[in-house]
């Protein structure tokens, strides 16, 4: 019966979309107003003035000249100088985040407790009172997405949100509704036996959004489509008699849908988060994966930092590895996270321009990402749709979304970096919060770890080159960080190849002393100042981890650049 129902819905997509726009007969005049203004340009706030862009452009030229000068004439001390600057910026990043967070705490202390009114959908309130925390303006909806996760890991991930400060509602979205996917639903019900509910969507929300975009000329603005999807999500809550206030209120919701891909389930997750945020008057959303766990203060520290900076649209936390003791690869991978991730993310985040909000540990200001959601999903690079497809099913909107080669061709994926890029393009600040930590999983085999690094490197190349105007909307240090990241690996790779075939280098000499000083500075800083504060047992792996990461890195960067648009998603191998 369920299969027949789903088939009927797919065959009558146009009628379903018409239903989405007409389920509020009492608001036809409001819908008419939307149609009247649907062709007008959206009003956007100018966050970077023309003079600011000119200043940033000049700064980019200076940054490029500085990089070329240090590479060519300071090559004997390049890594020593670079490490000193990186350590200083890491400290600056931490100081600035703490200043903003304390400012947020002080502001909320002066305001006192606020009791916002909680309502359910457009049809009124079920109850007048709620048992939730009074400080909802600093709360968030925690959204977790996953697909056939290991039950033990998924259980620990859900349990970590039980005592998480600042988490007002837990939304779990599962990319699949087949019998094999029921295991994750059972885990959800086991961890949250009360105050919870499960919804099974017959059609992914993104299919509805893209079909409406194709069928109706009125949908000229993405935000209108998103609002319609939000209205449908609210209606779904009503149809399932889900109460969000009063004695029967839920605080945990599980949503399943037919299997698509990570971007598809993330779209559904964001839409339900937007709906819940409007009902609860919550301003922020926390996003994570089904294999990642938060600590008690992770979410609150992140939300407080965003809340204290009006220009900040999102932030991500530091990461450690919860399976670091599995084998040698995971142990080395954990040490790389402690060293490289901390220093590289802090570099540009010192000026509020973190270039990647990692999928397991990202928080967003909802009003900033809502107008970007559909464009984020439809991202294309030279005709390549940035969606990973492990078992692709041909959608009815295939004429609207460009596909290459064939419907069964798997595509590269770029969901977390591109969402960050869209925020940076608008001139928002994006922070990296080193004092908040999320535990995630790393590949357990060398092959999978290398393939993961190649996939990430491809995403870095794509976002670095595809949106050059982004550098005009961010401080010059952001451009310097991108130039340093892209060019340094190329210079090192060229140097190694030149040494191998010719015996000399056209750019820089190999100075062992410079590498040793870099390693010592990094290792000492890791033990003395890294907020994660590794144990001595973890610290002693710094040397082997540096070799484990630095030796294949130039080849990874070069290969990922050459195969930037390769039709494969390495993370699944």
TrEMBL record:
Pfam families: Glyco_tranf_2_3
UniProt superkingdom: Eukaryota
Classification via InterPro entries: Nucleotide-diphossugar_trans (IPR029044)
Gene Ontology BP, a term: extracellular matrix assembly
Chief localization: membrane
GO cellular component assignments: plasma membrane
Molecular function GO labels: hyaluronan synthase activity
Alphabetized UniProt keyword annotations: Cell membrane, Glycosyltransferase, Membrane, Transferase, Transmembrane, Transmembrane helix
Entry's transmembrane regions: 54-74, 264-286, 490-511, 546-566
Subcellular location: Cell membrane
Protein name as catalogued: Glycosyltransferase 2-like domain-containing protein
Source organism of the structure: Alternaria alternata
């Amino acid at each position: 019966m369920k299969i027949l129902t789903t088939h009927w819905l797919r065959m009558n997509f146009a009628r379903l979309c018409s239903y989405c726009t007409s389920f509020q007969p009492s608001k036809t005049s409001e819908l008419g107003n939307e149609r009247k203004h649907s062709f007008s340009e959206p009003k956007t706030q100018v966050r970077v003035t023309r003079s600011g862009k000119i200043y940033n452009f000049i700064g980019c030229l200076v940054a490029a000249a500085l990089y070329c000068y240090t590479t060519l004439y300071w090559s004997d001390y390049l890594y020593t100088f670079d490490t000193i600057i990186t350590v200083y910026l890491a400290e600056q990043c931490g100081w600035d985040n703490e200043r903003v967070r304390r400012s947020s705490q002080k502001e909320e202390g002066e305001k006192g407790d606020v009791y916002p009114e909680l309502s359910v959908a457009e049809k009124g309130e079920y109850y007048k009172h709620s048992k939730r925390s009074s400080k909802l303006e600093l709360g968030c909806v925690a959204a977790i997405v996953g697909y056939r996760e290991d039950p033990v890991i998924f259980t620990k991930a859900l349990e970590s949100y039980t005592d998480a400060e600042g988490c007002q509602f837990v939304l779990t979205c599962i990319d699949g509704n087949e019998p094999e996917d029921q295991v994750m639903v059972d885990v959800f019900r086991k961890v949250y036996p009360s105050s919870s509910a499960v919804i099974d969507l017959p059609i992914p929300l993104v299919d509805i959004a893209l079909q409406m975009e194709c069928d109706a000329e009125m949908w000229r603005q993405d935000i209108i489509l998103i609002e319609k999807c939000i209205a449908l999500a609210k209606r779904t809550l009503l149809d399932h008699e889900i109460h969000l206030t009063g004695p029967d209120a839920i605080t945990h919701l599980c949503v399943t849908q037919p299997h698509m891909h990570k971007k598809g389930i993330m779209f559904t997750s964001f839409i339900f988060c937007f709906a819940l945020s409007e009902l609860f008057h919550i301003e922020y959303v926390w996003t994570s994966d089904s294999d990642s766990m938060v600590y008690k203060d992770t979410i609150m520290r992140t939300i407080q930092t965003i809340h204290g900076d009006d220009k900040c649209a999102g932030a991500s936390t530091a990461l450690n590895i919860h399976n670091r003791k599995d084998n040698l690869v995971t142990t080395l991978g954990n040490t790389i996270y402690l060293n490289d991730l901390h220093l590289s993310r802090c570099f540009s985040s010192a000026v509020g321009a973190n270039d990647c909000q990692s999928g397991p540990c990202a928080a967003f200001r909802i009003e900033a990402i809502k107008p970007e959601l559909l464009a984020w999903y439809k991202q294309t690079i030279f005709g390549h749709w940035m969606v990973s497809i492990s078992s692709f099913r041909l959608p009815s909107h295939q004429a609207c979304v460009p596909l290459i080669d064939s419907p069964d061709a798997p595509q590269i994926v770029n969901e977390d970096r591109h969402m960050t890029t869209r925020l940076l393009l608008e001139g928002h600040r994006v922070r990296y919060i080193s004092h908040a930590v999320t535990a995630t999983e790393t590949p357990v085999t060398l092959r999978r770890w290398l393939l993961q690094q190649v996939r990430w490197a491809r995403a870095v190349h794509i976002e670095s080159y595809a949106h050059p105007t982004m550098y005009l909307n961010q401080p010059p240090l952001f451009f310097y960080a991108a130039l340093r990241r892209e060019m340094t690996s190329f210079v090192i790779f060229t140097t190694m190849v030149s040494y191998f075939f010719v015996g000399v280098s056209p750019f820089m000499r190999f100075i062992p002393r410079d590498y040793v000083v870099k390693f010592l500075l990094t290792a000492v800083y890791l033990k003395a100042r890294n907020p994660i504060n590794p144990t001595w047992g973890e610290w002693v792996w710094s040397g082997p981890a540096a070799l484990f990461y630095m030796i294949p890195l130039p080849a990874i960067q070069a290969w990922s650049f050459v195969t930037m648009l390769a039709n494969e998603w390495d993370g699944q191998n």
